[in-house]
């Protein structure tokens, strides 16, 4: 048999999703296995087994992991040190002096990842143009390296002043560290970001160093295990910027993985929007622990610079994703004032919701959905986990009694609170950024997405909800559509009118040569590479910039840049000015093009036949009960129509629609639900 199987595995907080695609036969299979936080590799190998994918037959394995993110959330990363330029030892701990939270008198800065005791300085100094004022003092550097070895740090971040313009001193420092402190992992700021902003570049290097030891040992262990099972294909990791990176590149620069968890689904949404001809989508991905909302405009996910993790900047490109703690495992509880809250704490994979019967006793969103009939005991989750309604009811009862509500009233309230939070997350990425939700379709996925999507869409005036095939594992499917990406940048601040096109071309050519070399090593020939040049532009004196395409035609780029900048500034900020314009950073987006899988199309229903259905009782907001049509998604064919109210169950998720809503099945098996307004 030929090596034609493609596998993607997305490790989430509660479940690990796996999708297997056999392009020759069109077989597309979705599975879920419980996440194993204590032994991350065994969960991944269990996912291969569950999907019956023999690693020796797999040509591409795409992987997304929250391991780096979780070690940051729980502050369980490496013990790290920083080495900076003498006199600039405190760049990282001082950070910026602004306060993002203006009026919260209880506000505290997020915990830094190290103490002042862990910061060091070395005599050296370069200027903004790369010229050297003071060469690196080798004796000084050696003394610091010995101290780092003596104290037993796991990793060190080297971030010298203006290293983006001249990386030479950082490279020398690494060579000295390799001699004096050979066991310590080293991150150089210039290798992650060749851009100005000292604090942001240092923070990026610190985050990278903090998760490097844990990510390296995990990736090495996984590569070894797969090799033992005969895997010889291409191993790719999802990255925050939406593309993929090879596992060997990820071991060198794990900071690119921190925000990659939700990226697979958004990349998949971009690819899927082309297939179904819906260029503008709002995406919601609701898993066990969190909900991620994002936008797809003109079939392209929205990228931005300036991502943060808990207030710590990451100076690499990432997708624009808004995350809140609202998932299927989000716990319901009474706060100190006796008011009902849902999330952000989650029952996670262990013990999980009460309905899973694994020892959970606190009520979760899943338990509430089961109590009102959105979920049922008749269709096992992932084919094998049968929900226990009695356990959900007993978890809900204590809070219901305290509040003087019936169990179903409480459950309805918990679902309503979650919906309101999700509406807020979608508003944050649409209305608050100047987009009208009515101009979008809502693409809903993740194990919990289908339970909330229709209510959220109705609240926001979104006309239709689309549920893609394999919604519960759609993030994993999206990973199969991701190209390998590399991002390069060079800061060169100058007035647009004084832009020297020849010098700019030389800088781009330099980045393209670097990109070509990296892609060549990863097995992408010249015909499988694509480069796009962009430039960051702002009004003189402005803090933030707008990213504009750099003209490719070789003519004078200045007029084209000004015109495009005016158009984008108007769209993003609502106005333009006559002020002088300056460019800050030239950026290159380099892509290694991966074969995209063709999604199998679904057969149409023969005339005179219809799908089998049953009914399920659902409790409505006014406490009355209604019969909802119950349909198994696996039994649906293209062109089938279901009039609400109905519940559609499937192997990895459930979708609910109400009276007046109408569902039609599309040619790829997607569910297209037209929302009745104001029902």
Structural description of this entry:
There is one protein chain. This protein is an alpha+beta fold and 679 residues long. The chain is 30% helix and 27% strand. It has 16 helices and 35 strands. The strands form 9 sheets. Strands 13, 14, 15, 20, 23, 24, 31, 34 and 35 form a 9-stranded mixed β-sheet that branches. Strands 3-2-1-4-11-12 form a 6-stranded mixed β-sheet. A 4-stranded parallel β-sheet has the order 6-5-9-10, sandwiched between helices. β32 (646-649) and β33 (654-657) form a beta hairpin. α1 packs across α7 (198-228) and α4 crosses α5 (168-180). The longest helix is centred in the first third of the chain and has 31 residues, at 198-228. It is globular. It starts with a strand and ends in a 5-residue tail after the last strand. 48% of the residues are buried.
Name the descriptors:
30% helix; 16 helices; globular; nine-stranded mixed β-sheet; 679 residues
Q: How confident is the prediction overall: mean pLDDT?
A: 90
The biggest beta sheet is recorded as: 9 strands, mixed
How many DSSP helices? Answer: 16
Q: Gap between N and C termini, in Å?
A: 54 Å
The rough form would be described as: globular
What integer value in Å does the Rg equal?
26 Å
Task: List low-confidence stretches.
Answer: none
> Helix share of residues?
25-40%
Would you report the number of β strands? 35
Q: Return the structural class.
A: alpha+beta
């Amino acid at each position: 048999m030929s090596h034609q199987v493609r596998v993607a595995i997305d490790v989430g907080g509660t479940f690990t999703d796996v999708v297997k695609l056999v392009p020759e036969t069109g077989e597309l299979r979705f599975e879920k296995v419980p996440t194993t936080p204590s032994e991350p590799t065994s969960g991944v190998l269990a996912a291969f087994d569950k999907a019956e994918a023999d690693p020796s037959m797999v040509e591409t394995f795409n992987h997304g992991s929250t391991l780096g993110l979780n070690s940051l959330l729980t502050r369980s990363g490496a013990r790290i040190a920083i080495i900076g330029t003498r006199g600039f030892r405190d760049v990282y701990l001082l950070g910026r002096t602004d306060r993002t939270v203006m009026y919260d008198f209880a506000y505290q800065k997020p915990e830094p990842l190290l103490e002042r005791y862990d910061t060091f300085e070395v005599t050296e100094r370069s200027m903004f143009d790369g010229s050297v004022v003071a060469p690196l003092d080798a004796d000084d550097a050696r003394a610091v390296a010995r101290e780092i070895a003596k104290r037993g740090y796991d990793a060190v971040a080297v971030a010298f002043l203006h290293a983006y313009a001249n990386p030479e001193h950082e490279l020398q420092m690494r060579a000295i560290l390799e001699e004096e402190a050979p066991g310590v992992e080293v991150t150089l700021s210039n290798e992650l970001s060749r851009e100005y902003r000292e604090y942001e570049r240092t923070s990026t290097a610190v985050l990278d160093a903090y998760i490097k030891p844990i990510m390296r040992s995990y990736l090495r262990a996984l590569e070894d295990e797969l090799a033992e099972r005969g895997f010889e294909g291409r191993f790719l990791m999802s990255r925050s910027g939406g593309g993929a990176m090879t596992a060997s590149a990820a071991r060198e620069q794990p900071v690119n993985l921190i925000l990659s968890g939700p990226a697979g689904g958004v990349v998949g949404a971009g690819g899927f929007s082309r297939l179904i001809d819906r260029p503008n989508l709002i995406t919601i991905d609701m898993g066990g622990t969190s909900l991620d909302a994002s936008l797809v405009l003109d079939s392209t996910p929205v990228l931005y610079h300036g991502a943060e993790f808990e207030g710590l900047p990451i100076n690499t490109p990432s997708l624009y994703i808004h995350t809140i703690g609202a998932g299927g495992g989000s716990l319901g509880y009474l706060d100190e004032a006796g008011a009902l809250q849902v999330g952000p704490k989650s029952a996670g994979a262990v013990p999980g919701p009460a309905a899973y019967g694994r020892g959970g006793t606190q009520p979760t969103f899943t338990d509430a959905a089961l109590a009102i009939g959105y979920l049922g005991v008749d269709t096992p989750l992932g084919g094998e986990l049968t929900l226990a309604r009695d356990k959900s009811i007993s978890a809900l009862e204590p809070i219901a009694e305290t509040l003087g509500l019936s169990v179903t009233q409480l459950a309805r309230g918990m679902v309503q609170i979650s919906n309101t939070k999700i509406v807020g997350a979608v508003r944050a990425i649409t209305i608050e950024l100047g987009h009208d939700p009515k101009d979008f379709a809502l693409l809903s996925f993740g194990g919990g997405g289908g339970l909330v999507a229709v209510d959220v869409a109705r609240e926001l005036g979104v006309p239709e909800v689309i549920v893609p095939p394999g919604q519960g594992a759609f993030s994993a499917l999206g990973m199969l559509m991701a190209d390998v990406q590399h991002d390069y940048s060079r800061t060169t601040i100058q007035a647009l009118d004084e832009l020297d096109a020849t010098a700019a071309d030389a800088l781009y050519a330099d980045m393209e040569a670097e990109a070509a070399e990296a892609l060549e090593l990863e097995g992408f020939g010249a015909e499988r590479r694509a480069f796009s040049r962009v430039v960051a532009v702002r009004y003189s004196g402005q803090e933030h910039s707008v990213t504009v395409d750099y003209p490719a035609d070789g003519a004078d780029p200045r007029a084209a840049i000004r015109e495009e900048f005016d158009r984008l500034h108007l769209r993003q900020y609502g106005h333009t000015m006559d002020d002088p314009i300056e460019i800050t950073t030239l950026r290159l987006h380099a892509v290694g093009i991966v074969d995209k899988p063709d999604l199998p199309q679904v057969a149409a229903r023969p005339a005179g036949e219809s799908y089998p259905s049953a009914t399920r009782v659902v409790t409505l907001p006014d406490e009355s009960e209604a019969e909802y049509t119950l349909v198994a998604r696996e039994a649906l064919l293209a062109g089938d129509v279901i009039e609400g109210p109905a519940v559609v169950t499937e192997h990895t998720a459930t979708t609910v629609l109400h009276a007046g809503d109408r569902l039609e099945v599309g040619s790829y098996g997607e569910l297209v639900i037209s929302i009745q307004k104001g029902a």
